[in-house]
């Protein structure tokens, strides 16, 4: 389902604003499943059959309904794959300890700004320097 800018009505504006707000909320720790619960079943145009067949989302009552249904299917498949892969790996005491051991110093990102060496601040997936504005993770300059 694709929304063109010339679509009759302002559905694309509603969807865009909703997804921007959700992105900000998720970066600040909101529960993802709450969004899916709210979006699934919303009813506004465009709606109808998606053409994905039995393996996909067959019908959606709105773009947000489609997105919620698609994301639920995606997450369920990922959880099933993770369950299957965890059952295939024999767990011994040494692998269990390795799974919960804290990351080594080489695995953790540097908490010091590469520009001015001040402490970096994490905000969701982004890290930024409050002193000089340097940013990592697609944020900042």
How would you explain this protein's 3D organization?
The chain is mostly helical. The chain folds into two domains: 11-90, no CATH class; 109-141, no CATH class. 42% of the residues lie in helices and 9% in strands. It is built from four helices and five strands, in the order ααββααβββ. The chain has helices at 11-27, 32-39, 63-88, 93-100, and strands spanning 48-49, 59-60, 121-123, 126-128, 135-136. Strands 3-4-5 form a three-stranded antiparallel beta sheet, with no helix packed on it. β3 and β4 form a beta hairpin. α2 packs across α3 (63-88). The longest helix is centred in the middle third of the chain and has 26 residues, at 63-88.
Major β-sheet annotation: 3 strands, antiparallel
Low-confidence stretches: 93-109
- Determine the strand fraction and express it as a percent band: 5-15%
Fraction of residues in H or I helices = 40-55%
**pLDDT average, as an integer?**
74
Q: What is the helix/strand order? A: HHEEHHEEE
Please give the number of β-strands.
5
Instruction: Provide the domain count.
Output: 2
Order of strands, main sheet, comes to 3-4-5
Q: Tell the overall outline.
A: flat
Structural category is: mainly alpha
Topology:
Layout: H1 11-27, H2 32-39, E1 48-49, E2 59-60, H3 63-88, H4 93-100, E3 121-123, E4 126-128, E5 135-136
Antiparallel strand pairs: 1-2, 3-4, 4-5
In short:
By secondary structure, this protein is mainly alpha-helical. The chain has four helices and five strands, in the order ααββααβββ. 42% of the residues lie in helices and 9% in strands.
């Amino acid at each position: 389902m694709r929304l063109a800018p010339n679509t009759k009505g302002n559905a694309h504006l509603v969807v865009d604003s909703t997804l921007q707000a959700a992105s900000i909320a998720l970066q600040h720790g909101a529960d993802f499943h709450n969004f899916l619960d709210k979006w699934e079943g919303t009813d506004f145009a465009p709606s109808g059959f998606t053409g994905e067949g039995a393996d996909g989302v067959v019908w959606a009552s709105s773009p947000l309904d489609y997105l919620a249904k698609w994301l639920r299917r995606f997450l369920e498949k990922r959880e099933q794959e993770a369950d299957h892969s965890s059952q295939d790996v024999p767990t011994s005491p040494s692998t269990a300890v390795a799974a919960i051991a804290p990351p080594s110093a080489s695995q953790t990102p540097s908490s010091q700004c590469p520009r001015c060496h001040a402490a970096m601040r994490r905000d969701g997936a982004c890290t930024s320097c409050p002193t000089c504005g340097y940013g990592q993770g697609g944020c900042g300059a």
